[in-house]
Amino acid sequence: MSNYSFAGNNDPGSKSDCFVSFELRNSGGKIIEIKSKVLALYGKTIRQLADNILDFYQIEHAHLMIADTGALDFVMAARIEAAIRLKVESDKEYLLPRAAGNEKVSLKEQFRFSRLYLPGNSPNLMINAGIHHPNGLILDLEDAVAPSKKYEARFLVRNALRNLNFYGAERMVRINQIPKGLDDLKVIVPQYPNLILIPKCESANDLILVNEAIVEIKKEHNMGDFPIWLMPIIESAKGVIKAFEIATAASNVVAMAIGLEDYSADLGTQRTREGNESFFARSMVVNASRAAGIQPIDSVFSDVSDMEALAENVKTSKSLGFDGMGCIHPRQIAVIHENFAPEAIEIEKAKKIVLAFIDAEKRGLGVVSLGTKMIDAPVVKRAQRTIQLAIETVKLARDWDQNN
Questions:
Q1: How confident is the model at residue 1 (pLDDT cuts 50, 70, 90)?
Q2: Is 148 exposed, middle or buried (0-12, 13-18, 19+ CB in 10 A)?
Q3: 338-345: long-range pairs with CB below 8 Å, 24+
Q4: Per residue in 110-136, pLDDT tens?
Q5: Would you call 353 exposed, middle or buried from its count of C-beta atoms within 10 A (0-12, 13-18, 19+)?
Q6: Which residues pair with 256 in a beta bridge?
Q7: Based on the number of CB atoms within 10 Å of its own CB, is 137 exposed (0-12), middle (13-18) or buried (19 or more)?
């Protein structure tokens, strides 16, 4: 068995990362070996970081090798710590100072048009993801991370929650399937994530277990009443049938998503562009979500090269009642926002309804009418939401133009 432990990526094309090997020794002091194209500029800083982490874990004799390909401090610290913790049993965590804004609260009913998946062990995809202004950034510990890399990915995702610039996007983490995902929570929850995605959810019990763990962890870390929202993902026939039970399992469930790749596999069918095989499941998720008063979120569209097909898919998704969908590439974000946005005729109708409501209030009328039609409260609320969506879409488009 090797005396060395390893963390990070050493692929030829690896960027914004590092590869670390660590050997604990009985003598010889601390040997820190650094390989980097920017050694002359940053060698001293890298060495100081490595030395600090070794001291933190009270390691006096070791061989630490770092092959750097442009890793930021929080990435390198995560790699070094993961390699050490594979050999040194400890409950202590080496944490860099938290970046400003990474404890910001998100709102239960805020817009979630788009959420961009970022593999939890690929820092090069994380670094500037926020400049594309998705509504949420998902640091993914589940399907996007190889089983052999899940342990070290936790350290990277933990550090990213503390130190990555999210540019205002909601800070989301997809944990592993329950019960394994409960171990992820111990590392993730103390870093103030806004929302936890629960994959392959098939019963209310999954959410109950997650919330029990969150309550205990928040208490242990004195996090007060900081809200952590939940988004269960329905990915099986059983999950579809139990959609309403899942949607109403806890008060901090704000949205429910569907994952069509796994759902199609569970049915034993192929996912098609038309989506006939998933119509029932998507309708069930929408209806269960609306009945529970939460946001229904559609699956990702896997063809990142076909923007025309994506636009059609988003229009179908919107017509079914979804409020947003996942994406796996930044170029999908603008298309998703544009096509989930209200159309001109919808906005004009909504303005008329809201103006009629305002006029009725001013006149002290108990009912609202538009022409010869009476308008009830749910219609007014929907019209107000349409206008809010239109405003949000304009803002997102402006942010996109400024950064692309």
A1: very low
A2: exposed
A3: 338/311, 338/393, 338/397, 339/311, 339/314, 339/315, 340/113, 340/314, 340/389, 340/393, 341/389, 341/390, 341/393, 342/386, 342/389, 342/390, 342/393
A4: 889 999 999 999 999 999 999 999 999
A5: buried
A6: 296
A7: buried
Phi, psi of 112 (to 5 degrees): -135, 55
CATH fold of 4-85, please?
A: Ribosomal Protein S5; domain 2 (3.30.230)
Q: How many helices (H) and strands (E) does the chain have?
A: 14, 14
0.85 cut: is pTM over it? Answer: yes
Task: Show the 3-state SS of 340-366.
Answer: HCCCHHHHHHHHHHHHHHHHHHHCCCC
Long-range contacts of 184-187 (CB under 8 A, 24+ apart): 184/141, 184/154, 185/210, 185/213, 185/214, 185/217, 186/213, 186/217, 187/154, 187/155, 187/157, 187/158
Question: Which residue's structure tokens are 């929202």?
Answer: 229
Q: Which amino acid is at 350?
A: A
Res. 402 pLDDT band, cuts 50 70 90? low
Read off the pLDDT of residues 349-367 as tens digits, 9 standing for 90 and up.
Answer: 767 777 777 777 777 766 6
Q: Retrieve residue 161's tokens.
A: 């929650």
Between CA 223 and CA 218 the distance in angstroms is 5
- pLDDT band at 51; cut points 50, 70, 90: very high
The Cα–Cα gap between 103 and 268 comes to 42
For the chain, what are the domain ranges? 4-85, 114-340, 344-403
Record the tokens describing residue 62, joined without a space.
């070791």
Cα gap 173→198, rounded to integer Å: 9
Cis ω on the peptide bond leading into residue 179 (within 30° of 0)? Answer: yes
pLDDT for the residue 344 = 65
Buried b (16+ CB within 10 A) or exposed e, 308-335: eebbebbebbbebebbbbbbbbbebbbb
Q: Which of the four CATH numbers 3.20.20.60, 3.30.70.890, 3.40.710.10, 3.30.565.10 does domain 114-340 have?
A: 3.20.20.60
Burial class (CB in 10 A: 0-12, 13-18, 19+), 185: buried
Please tell me what DSSP assigns to residue 197: E
Domains 4-85 and 114-340 share a fold: no
Structure tokens at 358: 């305002």
